[in-house]
Structure formats: structure tokens, C-alpha cells
Amino acid sequence: MSPISRGFHRRHEPDADPSRVPPGQYVTADFPVLSAGPTPRTALRDWTFSITGAATPKTWTWDEFQALPSEKVTTDIHCVTRWSKLDTTWRGVTLDTLLGQVEHTGTFLLAHCDGGYTTNLPIADVLGGQAWVAFSYGGNPLAAEHGGPARLLVPHLYFWKSAKWVRRLELLDHDVPGFWESYGYNNYGDPWKEQRYAGD
Amino acid sequence: MPATETADHVDGNAIGGLLLEVFGTEMTAVTGRCGSCGTASVVAEQTVYLRAPGTVVRCPACTAILMVFVRIEARTCVDLRGLAELG
Predict the structure, then answer these.
(1) Is the pLDDT of residue B63 over 80?
(2) Which positions in chain B touch A81 (Cβ < 8 Å)?
(3) Residue in A6, A39, A183 closest to B79 by CB
């Protein structure tokens, strides 16, 4: 049996522009829920978001985070389990805004999430309007099963990098593999180069 | 479909084939002890998350990760570090 594909039902969208679909992906209208553990449900009054590590540490409460400038994002997302979803709409705070509020020297980050999940990213890939901490999807508060109250959104990389339930970014001067990366998934995860696994 | 299946997880019976492939023997009746909380549970009763880039098996008592299996093309990466004991 395959331990990976169970539970997925491919609903292809035949009208999708093929130039928007990375190699090996199919387009779905659904938003499949992937999870490696129970869904955390953190009350907003208890939720904080922090930057630590090679930075002046900073923590925002939910209200403080909501007061930051946010923007609407319309983007395509690509999951390493081979589904892609086009024109998804989010609202979030750019990592440019968040990292702009601390002094930092890091060149990598490790995102830490409720439930213990981690994923790693180069800082260069989260600046320049490439990444957000998103708290809204489709005009509604981000549902817990999709990573709410807030998740990373790094749509130019496979979606495992867009960590659900993100609570802390640890800035580092060296790269540290995250959860799936330590089990053989690609350290970078460019869907257009089909970097699914280590060595791709 | 196992009786305990919910929207996001199944029980250990669902990965009997995978475990047979990895260990070369029937494993669902084997007991594993959680390295985090010490709870001993039969593999068939453990909590399994399949809808992910890999298969994650968690302690039914404390939800700590017991085992992870990731299929990378023809290879299967196996992590048993969450278990204090298996067998």
C-alpha cells in the first residue's frame, strides 16, 4: 500500500493554464487538508508570534499582530503530494514587515509551530514580498485545519514550507533542516524544478 | 475502514501492510512504549496520520510521535526514535 496517497481523490481541473502548473502536479478545486498530527486550537487571547535567535527578540500578541500593515495576496499553491490550487486568496503580514521590526543577522530561519512542526527557509526567500504570515483565507479567518489562527505562506516553494500554526521564527546563521526536510524531503523545495526529495 | 477513523487520522491497522514491508513481519499486535510518556500501546491502537508527506504514528495517550515513515521513491525512511521499546 502507499502510505502517502490514501484519502486523496484527484479532481482535475481541465481548464487550468498549463503554464501555471509545475511539472508532476495536477490542479484541484479542493483544498486538501494535510496534517501530521492533531490540529492545535490556540485561543487568540493566548496566541503570540515571536522572532528569536540571531535577532533582537520580539513578540506580538494577536491584537498587536492585527495592527500591523497587512495585504491581500492572490497566488497559486503547490503541494509536494502533487496537488496545486490556483488563485487562492489570503491576507497576511509580509515577513519584510516582521523582520523590519527587529535587528537581525540571520541568513536562515527555522519556523516553529504549535504541535512541534518545523520547517527551514533561507532569509533571502522570505524577503522582497515573497512570504507572509497569513491569518485569512478566502476572505474568512484562517480555519484551524488549514493552519489558523496564522500560518506561513511561501507560495514559490512547495507548500510544506508554508508551515501551519506558526508561532515563532528562529533566525539562524546556518541552515537547520526542519521536520520533513530531515526525513529526505528537499531542503529547498522549488516546485518548478520538481525539488521534492533530497538530491532532486 | 477502521472503526476509529476520523477525518484526520486512522488507527495502526491502516498501516499493517507498510509495517510488514518495513519489518518483514506482522506488527499490528506488537506493543510499543512511548519514549515521552511511557505509555505502552499496541500498534493497532496507535494514532496514524496518513494525509501528509509521510506517515506519522503517534502515542494514543500523549500524541508524541512514535514512528515516522517517509517513502522516497523506492526507499522508505524509518524513524523509531519516539519509541522507548517495541516488541
Answers:
(1) yes
(2) 53
(3) A183
